[in-house]
Each structure stands twice: as structure tokens, then as C-alpha cells.
Amino acid sequence: MKTPDEIKRYQKIIANKDAILADAQAKADSMIQEAQIQTNELVSEHEIMQQAYAQANEIVTAATAQAQQILDNATNDAIIQMISFLRRRVRSDAHWIHIHRSMTVL
């Protein structure tokens, strides 16, 4: 059998059920709102990371293209200098051959 104190306590709980339910609902709503905020923050962080990765890839692509252009320009410059050197050498050799032939003819 229940004691009068227990009965009073249960009657108080029943009388306060709306307040208890409202408090529980408020706590549940607060937890849901907090979870939604955390979810939004995670989504936002994910989007920021995706943007950062995309930007980093663009920078790497641009740097690679620039490095290739620098390498191509250096290669072309080296080829042009080599051709110039060979032309001077051929002219010099042709000059000496001409002088040598002139001397052998005399």
C-alpha cells in the first residue's frame, strides 16, 4: 500500500505534468537546436575545406604551368644561344679555311 506522502508526491507530479512536459519539450528543442547549429558548423567547415582544396589545386596548376613556361623559355634561350655560337664558329672556321686556301694557292 502507498503511503500518504507517496500519494501526495504522485498527485503533485500529475498536477505538474504539463510543466514537466513543457520543460522536457524545451530541453529537447534546445538539444535539437544545438545539434542543428553543430551540423551547420560542420557543413560550413566542410564547404570551406572544399573551397580551400579547390583554390590550392588552382594555385598548383597555375604554378606548374608557370614553371613549365619558364623551363620552355630557358630551353629556347639555350637553343638560340647554341645556334648563335655555332654560326659564329662556322663563320670563323670558314674564314680560316678561306685564309688557308689563299695561302696554299700562292
Outline the fold blueprint.
Blueprint: H1 4-15, H2 17-105
N-to-C SSE series? Answer: HH
Could you describe the largest sheet, including whether it forms a barrel?
none
Quick one: overall form?
rod-shaped
Mean pLDDT: 90
**Strand-residue proportion:** under 5%
- Tally of DSSP helical segments: 2
Counted beta strands: 0
The helix-and-strand class reads mainly alpha
Helix content: over 70%
Rg:
45 Å
Low-pLDDT runs? none
Distance between the termini: 147 Å
Question: How would you briefly describe this protein structure?
Answer:
The protein has 106 residues and is mainly α. The protein has two helices and no strands.
What does this structure look like?
The structure is a single chain. The chain is mainly α. It has two helices and no strands. It has helices spanning 4-15, 17-105. It is rod-shaped, with a radius of gyration of 45 Å. The mean pLDDT is 90.
